[in-house]
């Protein structure tokens, strides 16, 4: 049978707790599939840095690159921890992986499952996907500061947008829209103020649209997009946007569609030259770590995205269905979708989903 080499980065805080459940589900769902997952665990993140001083060595990166896909929990310590000041785990590890492995599509679906409370009174149907650019924008680290620490300090953070980088993610977004029933694409930017990058994004959307006459295109400024995400989320189908806007919009999207505990993502290298990486949208949640309070659903849904990416679409659908059934059955805290607010521990949620998949307890 087919063998898939999976790199697992459990990471920090709740990362290992939610990844343990995700792996239980992966194991259960692939029992009946002609595929074997060959797992390599990488110890990376704040904990590793505090132990060894390493963030991501060249050897780590080379070893991870040799896998078919990556599952990541979350990395990062307690925000503001002085011991981590020079480590910059987020840049040196997470973004380094996304950039080095050319994860130019950061795919973040938002679905409000039936029965799940939303902080919105009557949101209507929520089923959209944010195609967030993953390798450019203000994230590239093209910045610098002078006269640091003085009243004359100047700090620049330049947003880098290349025609090559924008076009490829825009094309992916059109392709995604074409394959969805509503076939609708919204470009979100801030073209009224960010005129240079704005006109590049707008131009490429207009140009690529010619190849997708079946896709309806519109545009929203990012500030207005936050209004509509709250007042009328069902107007959205596919959103394409830059790295930073996409980061912010997808936490909002998670909040309206059941909470951050449910939001999954894929960092995709569509060319298949590098392994794609699947992870919950949430972070390491130091405030609840180590207490079995985290909701593992986002990590489990990230496994569904991983399976889908690998072409194991039936297994992906079975995970999604088991998760949906579990979500419908639970009572969810409308802020976080957190199991912590209900009676179930992190592992109890994982076990319940495994039981739905297999009919037996893990
Ligand atoms: P966070 O997402 O870790 O936590 C925000 C809030 O959501 C917290 O109250 C947390 O308890 C809650 N929460 C998050 N995931 C949850 C879950 N699965 N179940 C229940 N509640 C959950 O964001 P933060 O506090 O801004 O960041 C904490 C650390 O994580 C920082 O070091 C940050 O840089 C890092 N981070 C990492 C990633 C990643 O690895 N992909 C993503 C975001 C943040
Ligand atoms: C996310 C996170 C990361 C991002 C951080 C931790 C670098 O917030 O995955 O959404 O900004 O992309
Ligand atoms: Mn984020």
Automatic annotation (TrEMBL):
One of its GO terms (cellular component) is cytoplasm. One of its GO terms (biological process) is L-leucine biosynthetic process. It catalyses: (2R,3S)-3-isopropylmalate + NAD(+) = 4-methyl-2-oxopentanoate + CO2 + NADH. The record marks 139, 190 as: Important for catalysis. It is an enzyme of class 1 (oxidoreductase). Its main location: cytoplasm. Substrate binds at residues 98, 108, 132, 223. One of its GO terms (molecular function) is NAD binding. NAD(+) binds at residues 283-295. Mg(2+) binds at residues 223, 247, 251. Residues 5-353 form the Isopropylmalate dehydrogenase-like domain. Pathway: Amino-acid biosynthesis; L-leucine biosynthesis; L-leucine from 3-methyl-2-oxobutanoate: step 3/4. Its cofactor is Mn(2+); Mg(2+). Gene3D superfamilies: Isopropylmalate Dehydrogenase (3.40.718.10). Keywords: Amino-acid biosynthesis, Branched-chain amino acid biosynthesis, Cytoplasm, Leucine biosynthesis, Magnesium, Manganese, Metal-binding, NAD, Oxidoreductase. It is found in: Cytoplasm. Its EC number is 1.1.1.85. Binds 1 Mg(2+) or Mn(2+) ion per subunit. Catalyzes the oxidation of 3-carboxy-2-hydroxy-4-methylpentanoate (3-isopropylmalate) to 3-carboxy-4-methyl-2-oxopentanoate. The product decarboxylates to 4-methyl-2 oxopentanoate. Belongs to the isocitrate and isopropylmalate dehydrogenases family. LeuB type 2 subfamily. Homodimer. NCBIfam families: PRK03437.1. This is 3-isopropylmalate dehydrogenase. It comes from Cryobacterium lactosi. The lineage of its organism: Bacteria, Bacillati, Actinomycetota, Actinomycetes, Micrococcales.
């Amino acid at each position: 049978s087919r063998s898939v080499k999976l790199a697992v980065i459990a990471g920090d805080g709740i990362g290992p707790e939610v990844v343990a459940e995700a792996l239980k589900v992966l194991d259960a769902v692939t029992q009946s599939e002609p595929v074997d997952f060959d797992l390599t665990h990488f110890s990376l993140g704040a904990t590793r840095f505090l132990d060894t001083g390493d963030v991501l060595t060249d050897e780590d990166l080379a070893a991870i690159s040799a896998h078919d896909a990556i599952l990541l929990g979350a990395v990062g310590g307690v925000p503001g921890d002085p011991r981590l000041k020079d480590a910059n785990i987020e840049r040196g590890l997470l973004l380094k992986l996304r950039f080095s492995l050319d994860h130019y599509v950061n795919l973040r679906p938002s679905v409000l499952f039936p029965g799940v409370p939303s902080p919105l009174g009557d949101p209507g149907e929520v089923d959209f996907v944010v195609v967030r650019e993953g390798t450019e924008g203000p994230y590239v680290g093209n910045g610098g500061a002078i006269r640091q620490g003085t009243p004359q300090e100047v700090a620049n953070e330049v947003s880098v947008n290349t025609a090559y980088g924008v076009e490829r993610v825009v094309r992916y977004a059109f392709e995604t829209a074409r394959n969805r029933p509503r076939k609708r694409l919204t470009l979100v930017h801030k073209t009224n103020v960010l005129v240079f990058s704005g006109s590049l994004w707008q131009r490429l959307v207009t140009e690529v649209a010619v190849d997708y006459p079946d896709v309806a295109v519109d545009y929203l400024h990012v500030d207005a997009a936050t209004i509509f995400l709250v007042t009328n989320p069902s107007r959205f189908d596919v959103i394409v946007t830059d790295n930073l806007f996409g980061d912010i919009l997808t936490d909002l999207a998670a909040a309206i569609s059941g909470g951050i505990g449910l939001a999954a993502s894929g960092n995709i290298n569509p060319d298949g030259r590098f392994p794609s990486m699947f992870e919950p949208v949430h972070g390491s949640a130091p405030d609840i770590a180590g207490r079995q309070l985290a909701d593992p659903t986002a990590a489990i849904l990230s496994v569904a995205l991983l399976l889908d990416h690998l072409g194991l679409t039936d297994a992906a659908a079975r995970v999604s269905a088991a998760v949906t059934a579990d979500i419908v059955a639970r009572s969810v805290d409308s802020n976080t979708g957190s199991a912590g607010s209900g009676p179930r521990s992190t592992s109890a949620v994982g076990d319940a989903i495994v039981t739905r998949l297999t009919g037996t307890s893990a």
